[in-house]
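The data are quoted verbatim for completeness:
=====
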Amino acid sequence: LVKMSRRQIRRLEETMRRKDEEEDESDEDVHASKKGLLSFALLDAGEDEEQEDDERKEEQEEEQEEEKKQPEVKEEGDEGGEESSNKKKKKKKKGKTSQQEAQQDDESLDQLLLQSSQPLPAPSSSQLQGERLLDELLLLDLPCLNADREMKKLFGASALDQRPPPAMRRPGRQAATQRVAKRTSIVSFRKHWPSLARSGVSMRYAEGPGGGGARGAYFELAYDADYIKAQESFLAMAATHDPQNIADLLHEQPFHLDTLLQMSEISAQMGEQQSSSDFLERAVYVLEAAFHPSFLAGMSGGKSGEERTRMDFDEEKNQVLFHVLFRQMHLVGRRGCNRTALELAKMILALSPLHDPLGILLCIDYYALRSRMFRFVLVLHEFYKTVPSSHPQFHVATLPNFLYSSALATWSMQTAGVRDATPDHISNLLQVEDQTANTKLQEALACYPEVLILLLEKACVVTHSGPWASILQHPHFARARESETSNMQNIINIFVERNITLWKTTTALQWLQDNAQTLINRLNANDLKKKRDSRRPLPAGLYRHLLVNNFSDAITTIPREALEEGGGGGVVERGFAEAGQDPPGLNRLDATANPLLLFLQSMLPWNAAPLPANEDDADEMLARRLQAEMLEEDEDED
């Protein structure tokens, strides 16, 4: 940095002020660089001011001393004149050097201002086809992140039910929480929620993972001391395997993320989908309220790859954000808000594009097809086909979901005549290889023949007779399951579970049948090379941790018999009861507790009535139960 005087500082401030008026106010990075430049310049300028003041004081002292010595100099004669002349020469030299330094400072300042005013160099075509192309593909459309807005657009305002779930309707609660909520993009604040004064969650800049991560601005979640204590309490309550303890903790910590996630899962398993959705949306709101101001801005715009928003999944404190967004994506997709689900999938993938820890690449094509963004699927597939073999996602181009979805997207535009909804800036990013839909589907069937078998089974198609019987008896399909690894088998199962709704239509099944027969004819005529060898190698253990249920729209609930009062209605519970043991996770109540509290707790399905102290008490309890049943039968007869 150059040293500047007051005049130079004023000049710099005036130049910066003029540039600020001309430039767009939304360009935060340029403003940050200017402010940083000005702050460092002022820091050096403060030091220069002190040096100039010291030099000015020394000059004044020397002038005062010379004025005192002037009479003595006249009397001394030539010697004194020579000394005074030497001093004047030194001052002249000093003045010249100071002028030269000032001139050099002006020149360096001009160069510095010229460099700061120059725009950033435009990326080359090779760079655009690299990771910056993926960044452009994954740019978020912020208005499409809100599921309520899409629901209103699809079904009208009457589709939005803002009433709280029955379990959360309490008198006077809404009036107590009428506060101004923070404006958010993903989830809107619900009136029946407690007021979010302080959640204990915040977001800050972080260091990247080093050479193994994507370029960009990394963020991380931070928690205060109270939230850390609540997390310790949650782990202790979760270890008891009693959902009631989790519910009690939620009343004390209504915005604890892991507790909200757990209660959402418990409510879903009990069939209370509205409560499950409410808990999950509250967790999303807590995270969004903690977002850094630059977090969403870096995912919806920017000029360079260094400015993209990233987050390291390997940091344990960041994982809750990935899981909450993934659950929200799945929830809104189940409601039919496919465009919102697609934007959330792009958001999760953009945070960690080189690793994809939650398997977004296995479902992003589904949400794009459901949103009728066919060109998006084709451009994304084409991008992964062009990446070098050293790229961490080199294998994506030959995954079964991309091969089949690319064929379906092309068929939807070419044959079915469905209008494409992909924005123009995405469609023009990359030139897609010109192939027919039939060619792509035959290539997919040649690489992954087992997918056809599973799709037919999932669609309940009769395959033991008719045209499908002769197709599936061909060795290419009959031996399809023999050579697949367990890892690839899991990926295929996820694809079939996720995309079955797109392929079980009559027209899609007929299209599958025609191309499967054509493929067999080509195989018999040796007109097709063995396509399995063209599949790109799959990294060991990739996506092995993913579960098929996490990609399914099927709602799994606890069986009805397991919810019967007393905990002994189910087959599993009866087996443990015959062995004289309690099933795992069953909470046996204390008989010495408050009778009213004991009665209320016994109504919950995970609690069981207290055991009798001895056999006499057991006989007495049995007699009372038989007497109560007889009275009920008499009342029914009357």
